[in-house]
Write a structure and sequence with these properties.
Elements (H helix, E strand, L loop, with lengths): L1 H11 L10 E5 L4 H10 L5 E2 L8 E5 L3 H18 L5
Antiparallel strand pairs: 1-3, 2-3
Length: about 90
């Protein structure tokens, strides 16, 4: 799942911190809190890292192949709707 998610984030041009664990940090152009709220409205649960002093970051867990696809699809949708972000 990590390789799939990393490749998808690379295609979107999103900065992330690679890891070998089942979770990692992603820098969101919308900020962590807004990204969390927008993703939650779409039924995708992530974690804002704002309370850890990382206001621009979210933390995600690697899921099943379908969950990972849904995460990337929803992240792209949220970013496209709220910014002029286009890839």
């Amino acid at each position: 799942g990590l390789d799939y998610l990393f490749a998808g984030l690379n295609r979107l041009g999103i900065e992330y911190h690679p890891t070998q664990t089942n979770f990692f940090l992603i820098k969101s152009p919308l900020g962590g809190k807004m990204t969390y709220e927008l993703m939650l409205r779409e039924g995708v649960i992530i974690r804002s890292m704002e309370s850890f002093g990382l206001k621009d970051y979210i933390r995600i867990n690697v899921g099943t192949p379908e969950e990972n696809k849904r995460f990337l699809r929803t992240l792209k949708k949220v970013l496209n709707e709220k910014t002029h972000y286009r890839h």
